[in-house]
Predict the structure.
Amino acid sequence: MLLMGLTLLLPVSADEVGITAPLPEAEAVANKTTSYDSSIPLTRLKVQLRPLSKEEITKELEAWMKLLRDDISQASKLSIKAQSYEKASDIPEELKARQIELRTSEYALTRRIQVVIAALESKGGDVAEAKKYVDAVTLARFETEGKSVFAIIGEDIKEWVSDPDGGKKAIRGLGIALLLLVAFWIIAKILSKIIKVIISKHVGMSVMLGQFIERSVKGVVIFMGLLFALSSLGVQVGPMIAAVSAGGFILGFALQETLGNFASGMMVMFYRPFDIGHFVEVAGTGGRVDKMSLVSTTLLTPDNKELIIPNKKVWGDTIINYNSKKVRRVDLVFSIGYGDDIKKAAEVLKEVTESHAQVLKSPETVIQVGELADSSVDLLCRPWVKTKDYWDVYRELTWLVKERFDQEGISIPFPQRDLHVYQVEPLQPQT
């Protein structure tokens, strides 16, 4: 490793930070550079550059550039010497080792110069010339070394991987990031199960609200894990959060319709007009509630069509919940002819409903005359059943009553109209 005798510009002595005295050959730049060692960690270099002014960092850049020029000058001389040999196998191993050493030092110096350039640029310094020089010597390397582009790139990749501030740091950060993501994912799963158990014991909580709390906690934990993972990779999380906060107003204005659905979804979850699995009628459409998010509600119709309704329409319209109560009344209408015995028909309806196993004894079934219609006498039959048995009882009673009416000779008339024809004598012509 190329050692250069450089002193620190921080207000502490070299001995206090564990740095040995500058080497004699570096005295020319000893009062200008941040370190005598080209392998100074990048994070430490950034800390040392932070309190310096633009003028001070300019001197730092000049000193680091001198080190790079000296390094490249030596490397160029060795490259010329290596090209004097007819075969690559004739090049002495000492010369090859020195070339590798200089190339490693050049790579390390270039990375640190880039840090100094970034620090100077952030404080308003002129870095255009330095950037052009670094780019030029990097591109010129492809020509001076007499190697293929792929060979040099491969060597650079190997150097980057072996660099403590390069590949090793990146691989270490990536490993830590993956471990953090896995750890927070496991924590999220465990918390999700714990919350599910707690919610299951809470009798008054709806399934929708429970699912929302479970998903929210899981999402927050995973999001925190993602932030920690990005931080371990060197990403500045603070500015990202600040940028999102600053753009909150604009984002809220652009997504006002979505935020309206979000607010309506929260109202539905907390006031619980329906729950998962309930058959409801909302926004003029009926179906079983399949799932619900903060922005929409998904219904499944009886013929298994999926309807996705924005929560703003759900909460802003009339909601009919057919499953909110444990028992429901089945409203049936049976028509008989005007010539049929109304008492006998009522007795048949009473026998059929009382004999049905799913019809409740209390409240009692009500059988009354509903209307004297144009073509029939309409009898109302209103038994009470458990909500889950509603449609089974509705269909079965309709079937059974029709069979009994046929057996008892009670007619179920169809709409009819009497037509009266009058014969009129034709008018006699007047004479």
About this structure: Residues 1-31 have pLDDT under 50 and may be disordered. Residues 24-165 form one domain.
